[in-house]
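ingest -> validate -> predict -> emit
validate: passed (alphabet ok, no gaps, 284 aa)
predict: started
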Amino acid sequence: MISFPNIADLPTTPFSGTDVVRGVECATSDGDGPGRVRVEVDGKPDVLAFYGAASEGTPDDPVIFLRGDAVEKRDDAVVANEWYVAATAYDVQALAEQFSATFHRPYLHLARPGILGSTGHHLDRRRPREVALVDAALTRLKAHFGWRRLNLVGQSGGGHLVAALIARRDDIGCAVITSGNTAVAQRNRENGWTADITGHSDFLDPIDHVAGVAHHPPQKIIVLTDPHDQRVSASVQTAYVEALRRAGVAVDHRLLPASGRLRHDLQLPGILAALTWLASKRRM
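emit:
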């Protein structure tokens, strides 16, 4: 049965860098459980891991976080990045519990396919199946926990997912996109790529789906950008914001300095932006 994980049951050993590059197949015996939700797309199942908590007496709708990509290119090889090979399931759950307890709201970190305990192939990200898997997992989690609306935060590749999801879902309260790869084709052109690190060119490009967002916009969209982002340029992020505005969608676009050598990490400000906006609504 689906439930939040028990932190005492989670390993304190780092996730496998080999698995994130190679992919993790879903076994026939894999199914729902604590921190696990099984979904099926195109006749093929996967089990997505999730971490989180909801304190007693917090019926509010959750903040759900989708992290960025877990691999990078090094010496012409695709390898897991430094953050990923240092991360543990215990640490991911501990941080989720900290956010939930501090802000007295359900908080959930949904692991994208192929990372952080989910089955699937992380190198197939940005393609339609990744979006469909995450969409299906959100639908099952929402039904199981009895949530009315979902509030999404996505960093980088997770921001791509949030942008894709708000074009297809009509139940989003607040959507926060930080350092998001939201105009994939433009980013490829800017870098002179025919395909990005995934090697795939059949990506789902959120900027092509802003009409879907306009059909049922979230209550609040916040986009956070570092003007000097060296991984996903500010021009890529701004192009998406401008496309939304042309479609009649209001966007709160904030420019701020990101942490890290590449000026790309806005994960924490994104989570805090969603939680702060929701807290302001609660006081109204």
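The two ends are 36 Å apart (CA to CA).
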